[in-house]
Amino acid sequence: MQYVSERVSVDRKDGRTSVVISARTTPAKRTLLVTWMVAWLTCGVIVLIERTKLPAGDPARQFMLAFLAFWAYFAVVGLRGLLWRLKGFELWRIKEGTLVVKNSIFGYGKAQQYFVDNIQKLGLITVDATSWKWQWNQSVWVIGGERIGFEHAGRKVVIGKNLTEPEARALVALLKDALKHERKREAATVA
Predict the structure, then answer these.
(1) Element (H or E) spanning 160, and its range?
(2) Whole-model pTM?
(3) Which end of the chain is more exposed for a tag (fewer CB within 10 A), N or C?
(4) 132 or 70: whose pLDDT is higher?
(5) More confident residue, 39 or 14
(6) Which helix (H) or strand (E) covers residue 85, if one does?
(7) DSSP result, 169-190
(8) Which residues, including other chains, have CB under 8 Å from residue 151's CB and lie 6 or more apart?
(9) Segments forming the whole domain that contains residue 148
Protein backbone atom coordinates (compact mmCIF):
# COMPACT_ATOMS: atom_id res chain seq x y z
CA MET A 1 0.00 0.00 0.00
CA GLN A 2 1.23 3.44 -0.96
CA TYR A 3 0.19 6.65 0.77
CA VAL A 4 -0.07 9.80 -1.33
CA SER A 5 -0.97 11.78 1.80
CA GLU A 6 -2.53 11.25 5.20
CA ARG A 7 -5.99 11.06 3.58
CA VAL A 8 -5.19 9.26 0.29
CA SER A 9 -3.99 5.68 -0.08
CA VAL A 10 -3.33 3.58 -3.18
CA ASP A 11 -3.22 -0.21 -3.43
CA ARG A 12 -1.87 -1.85 -6.61
CA LYS A 13 -1.88 -5.62 -6.87
CA ASP A 14 -3.34 -8.55 -8.79
CA GLY A 15 -4.10 -6.49 -11.89
CA ARG A 16 -6.13 -3.88 -10.07
CA THR A 17 -5.57 -0.39 -8.71
CA SER A 18 -7.60 0.88 -5.77
CA VAL A 19 -7.63 4.42 -4.40
CA VAL A 20 -9.25 5.43 -1.11
CA ILE A 21 -9.76 9.12 -0.31
CA SER A 22 -10.94 9.92 3.18
CA ALA A 23 -13.38 12.82 3.55
CA ARG A 24 -12.19 13.60 7.05
CA THR A 25 -11.03 17.08 7.88
CA THR A 26 -9.27 18.63 10.86
CA PRO A 27 -10.73 18.00 14.33
CA ALA A 28 -11.45 21.72 14.76
CA LYS A 29 -13.51 21.84 11.55
CA ARG A 30 -15.37 18.66 12.51
CA THR A 31 -16.18 20.13 15.92
CA LEU A 32 -17.45 23.35 14.34
CA LEU A 33 -19.54 21.38 11.86
CA VAL A 34 -21.14 19.26 14.61
CA THR A 35 -21.79 22.37 16.72
CA TRP A 36 -23.33 24.20 13.77
CA MET A 37 -25.53 21.20 12.95
CA VAL A 38 -26.78 20.88 16.54
CA ALA A 39 -27.57 24.62 16.62
CA TRP A 40 -29.36 24.40 13.24
CA LEU A 41 -31.50 21.46 14.33
CA THR A 42 -32.29 23.16 17.65
CA CYS A 43 -33.44 26.33 15.86
CA GLY A 44 -35.72 24.34 13.59
CA VAL A 45 -37.29 22.45 16.48
CA ILE A 46 -37.90 25.71 18.39
CA VAL A 47 -39.56 27.32 15.35
CA LEU A 48 -41.71 24.21 14.85
CA ILE A 49 -42.82 24.23 18.49
CA GLU A 50 -43.59 27.96 18.40
CA ARG A 51 -45.56 27.53 15.17
CA THR A 52 -47.85 24.99 16.86
CA LYS A 53 -48.59 27.53 19.63
CA LEU A 54 -49.94 30.15 17.20
CA PRO A 55 -53.67 30.32 16.36
CA ALA A 56 -54.81 28.81 13.04
CA GLY A 57 -55.45 32.13 11.24
CA ASP A 58 -52.22 33.87 12.22
CA PRO A 59 -50.14 34.94 9.15
CA ALA A 60 -46.95 34.15 11.09
CA ARG A 61 -47.80 30.45 10.73
CA GLN A 62 -47.37 30.66 6.94
CA PHE A 63 -44.11 32.56 7.35
CA MET A 64 -42.84 29.91 9.76
CA LEU A 65 -43.93 27.15 7.39
CA ALA A 66 -41.90 28.75 4.57
CA PHE A 67 -38.97 29.13 6.94
CA LEU A 68 -39.23 25.47 7.95
CA ALA A 69 -39.18 24.39 4.29
CA PHE A 70 -35.86 26.17 3.75
CA TRP A 71 -34.65 24.96 7.15
CA ALA A 72 -35.43 21.33 6.24
CA TYR A 73 -33.55 21.61 2.94
CA PHE A 74 -30.41 22.95 4.60
CA ALA A 75 -30.78 20.45 7.46
CA VAL A 76 -30.63 17.59 4.94
CA VAL A 77 -27.66 19.15 3.12
CA GLY A 78 -25.89 19.76 6.42
CA LEU A 79 -26.55 16.26 7.76
CA ARG A 80 -25.24 14.70 4.54
CA GLY A 81 -22.15 16.90 4.75
CA LEU A 82 -21.66 16.00 8.42
CA LEU A 83 -21.97 12.26 7.74
CA TRP A 84 -19.61 12.64 4.77
CA ARG A 85 -16.98 14.38 6.92
CA LEU A 86 -17.31 11.89 9.78
CA LYS A 87 -17.60 8.54 7.93
CA GLY A 88 -17.22 9.22 4.20
CA PHE A 89 -14.76 7.87 1.66
CA GLU A 90 -14.37 8.22 -2.09
CA LEU A 91 -13.36 4.86 -3.55
CA TRP A 92 -11.89 4.22 -7.01
CA ARG A 93 -11.05 0.83 -8.49
CA ILE A 94 -9.60 0.03 -11.89
CA LYS A 95 -10.10 -3.64 -12.70
CA GLU A 96 -11.31 -5.77 -15.60
CA GLY A 97 -11.54 -2.87 -18.04
CA THR A 98 -13.61 -0.56 -15.83
CA LEU A 99 -13.06 2.35 -13.48
CA VAL A 100 -15.54 2.17 -10.61
CA VAL A 101 -16.09 5.31 -8.50
CA LYS A 102 -18.13 5.17 -5.30
CA ASN A 103 -18.89 7.83 -2.70
CA SER A 104 -19.30 5.74 0.42
CA ILE A 105 -20.92 6.82 3.70
CA PHE A 106 -20.97 4.00 6.28
CA GLY A 107 -20.24 1.63 3.37
CA TYR A 108 -23.34 2.70 1.43
CA GLY A 109 -23.34 4.60 -1.82
CA LYS A 110 -23.97 4.15 -5.51
CA ALA A 111 -21.04 2.98 -7.60
CA GLN A 112 -20.57 4.48 -11.07
CA GLN A 113 -18.79 2.40 -13.72
CA TYR A 114 -16.77 3.82 -16.59
CA PHE A 115 -15.20 1.69 -19.33
CA VAL A 116 -11.45 2.30 -19.47
CA ASP A 117 -11.46 2.41 -23.27
CA ASN A 118 -13.95 5.30 -23.25
CA ILE A 119 -12.04 7.50 -20.78
CA GLN A 120 -10.38 10.46 -22.48
CA LYS A 121 -8.84 13.79 -21.50
CA LEU A 122 -7.97 12.80 -17.94
CA GLY A 123 -6.45 15.68 -16.00
CA LEU A 124 -6.79 18.38 -13.41
CA ILE A 125 -9.81 20.64 -13.48
CA THR A 126 -8.94 24.28 -13.91
CA VAL A 127 -10.51 26.24 -11.11
CA ASP A 128 -10.79 29.89 -10.23
CA ALA A 129 -9.97 29.91 -6.52
CA THR A 130 -11.53 33.36 -6.17
CA SER A 131 -14.94 32.35 -7.51
CA TRP A 132 -17.93 32.00 -5.21
CA LYS A 133 -18.82 28.59 -6.69
CA TRP A 134 -15.37 27.17 -5.94
CA GLN A 135 -15.41 28.51 -2.39
CA TRP A 136 -18.83 26.94 -1.80
CA ASN A 137 -17.65 23.57 -3.19
CA GLN A 138 -14.60 23.63 -0.92
CA SER A 139 -16.64 24.38 2.20
CA VAL A 140 -16.80 21.79 4.95
CA TRP A 141 -20.59 21.32 4.95
CA VAL A 142 -21.03 20.24 1.33
CA ILE A 143 -19.93 17.13 -0.53
CA GLY A 144 -17.98 18.49 -3.46
CA GLY A 145 -14.74 20.16 -4.46
CA GLU A 146 -13.72 17.72 -7.19
CA ARG A 147 -10.24 18.30 -8.63
CA ILE A 148 -9.87 15.63 -11.36
CA GLY A 149 -11.94 15.26 -14.50
CA PHE A 150 -12.24 13.22 -17.66
CA GLU A 151 -14.61 12.59 -20.53
CA HIS A 152 -16.44 9.30 -20.78
CA ALA A 153 -18.52 8.63 -23.90
CA GLY A 154 -18.87 12.37 -24.53
CA ARG A 155 -19.93 13.20 -20.96
CA LYS A 156 -17.78 15.12 -18.46
CA VAL A 157 -17.09 13.33 -15.18
CA VAL A 158 -15.44 14.84 -12.10
CA ILE A 159 -13.86 12.92 -9.22
CA GLY A 160 -11.41 13.56 -6.39
CA LYS A 161 -13.41 15.37 -3.74
CA ASN A 162 -11.50 17.95 -1.66
CA LEU A 163 -8.06 16.92 -2.88
CA THR A 164 -5.19 19.33 -2.46
CA GLU A 165 -3.20 20.37 -5.52
CA PRO A 166 -0.27 17.98 -4.80
CA GLU A 167 -2.64 15.08 -4.07
CA ALA A 168 -4.55 15.72 -7.30
CA ARG A 169 -1.36 15.91 -9.39
CA ALA A 170 -0.06 12.65 -7.90
CA LEU A 171 -3.37 10.87 -8.48
CA VAL A 172 -3.66 12.07 -12.10
CA ALA A 173 -0.23 10.60 -12.86
CA LEU A 174 -1.14 7.39 -11.06
CA LEU A 175 -4.50 7.11 -12.86
CA LYS A 176 -2.94 7.71 -16.26
CA ASP A 177 -0.42 4.95 -15.59
CA ALA A 178 -3.08 2.55 -14.25
CA LEU A 179 -5.36 3.22 -17.24
CA LYS A 180 -2.47 2.63 -19.66
CA HIS A 181 -1.66 -0.72 -18.00
CA GLU A 182 -5.33 -1.74 -17.93
CA ARG A 183 -5.75 -0.92 -21.64
CA LYS A 184 -2.66 -3.01 -22.48
CA ARG A 185 -3.95 -5.90 -20.37
CA GLU A 186 -7.38 -5.72 -22.01
CA ALA A 187 -5.80 -5.61 -25.48
CA ALA A 188 -3.65 -8.65 -24.63
CA THR A 189 -6.66 -10.67 -23.44
CA VAL A 190 -8.64 -9.82 -26.59
CA ALA A 191 -5.78 -10.79 -28.91
Answers:
(1) strand 155-161
(2) 0.84
(3) C
(4) 70
(5) 39
(6) helix 59-87
(7) HHHHHHHHHHHHHHHHHHHHHH
(8) 119, 120, 121, 157
(9) 1-191
